[in-house]
Amino acid sequence: MIKRRVALGLLGGAIAGLSAQCRTSQPLVQKSLAQTVQSLSPTAEFLGLNVGTELNWTNWRDKLLPLYQSAGIRWLRVWYNWATLESVRGRYDSELTLESLQLAKNMGFKILFVVWGTPAFAGNGELSAVPNATDWVRYCNWLRSNMAGLVDAWEIGNEPNLDKYHQGTPASYVQLLSSANQVLRQSAPVIAAGPSGASTEEYWQALLDSGLEQHCDRVNIHPYRVRSDEVIEVVDRFLRRVNKPLWITELGRSTDDGGERLKAEFLTNVMPRLSQRAEKVFWYRSIQGEGLHPMSYGLIEADEDSGRVKTLPAYSAYNRYAQALTTNATQANLSQP
Fold it and tell me: Cβ distance 65 to 108 under 8 Å?
């Protein structure tokens, strides 16, 4: 999953007591943002990590999963493309994936599953093709029947403003979201896809005008930026337009933009601020290293030739924040009458 980045950045979020709300006809004003910032109470449950298909790497996962645990990561965002699971209509190659998800569950992780990647038989041959409705609904039913006990939340698509991930319009994305939501919400919450950092506010509004909030439990954004102030500015503008709680399922900063120290400082600065705005944040991404992942967003450096792994300064920063959240939550519970 090599992604085009127009801007770099990160996010942090926090699980809290925001309840899902239906979209109202009243205009959204600055007061809504203020209420959101005041109402969230972050716990370690908001911490997530993008891992792609790493759970299926049987020669690596025994090294990586314990490191994810030690960092305080609670949620894993996984990508198993529909085109990989069902390359031929009605024939599923899912044994390793199901076994891998079960392993992660046994270790205490929660799973956010990205539903994406159109097989050739359901579209025009491109992974980002808008699938035909019949095959799409059938696949969603298969997911619910086979993964309902393994998946804790479903994310429908990814960065639909980019042709690389969605070749259709905002309205066609919302139609896919609506169809998936009708099937998958019976087993776990449904999260809308997050527009990329390159998305315009006009695109956000087009999604909302097409009814996005009626067909999901949580909204989403990927506000990649280099500076934490810029990330917060993007998130606040987005929050003023929406009425449902926010998940941020991707955000990070590359080592290529200032080095490992600045990546760690960015994480340290932005996490607490985002934890008052979003229910969850999923850092992008878990590992970096030649032959494994060419983009330098990782918490861990891995060397394919030697098999060695090394935690990076951003990993330590992530761990410190997770420990602080756990300590704060424990103290809050002890203070309860």
Answer: no
Euclidean distance between CA atoms 113 and 142, whole angstroms: 14
Cross-strand pairs, 118: none
Between β-strands 246-251 and 280-283, what pairing exists: parallel, antiparallel or unpaired?
parallel
Task: Let me know: does 44 contact 329? Beta carbons within 8 Å.
Answer: yes
Q: Are the C-beta atoms of 80 and 97 separated by less than 8 Å? A: yes
Our CA angle for 182, 186, 188, nearest 5°, is 110
DSSP-based three-state secondary structure for 110: strand
8-state DSSP, 122: G
The pTM assigned to this predicted structure is: 0.89
CB atoms within 10 A of CB 256: 12
Tokens 């956000």 identify what position? 204
Rounded CA separation 113/23 (Å)? 25
Q: Which residues pair with 287 in a beta bridge?
A: 300
247: tokens are 């998940």
Beta strands of the chain (E only): which ranges? 47-52, 75-79, 110-115, 153-156, 190-192, 219-220, 246-251, 280-283, 287-288, 300-302, 309-311
DSSP assignment string, 206-242:
HHHHTTGGGG-SBEE-----SSHHHHHHHHHHHHTT-
Q: pLDDT tens across 62-105, in order? A: 999 999 999 999 999 999 999 999 999 999 999 999 999 999 99
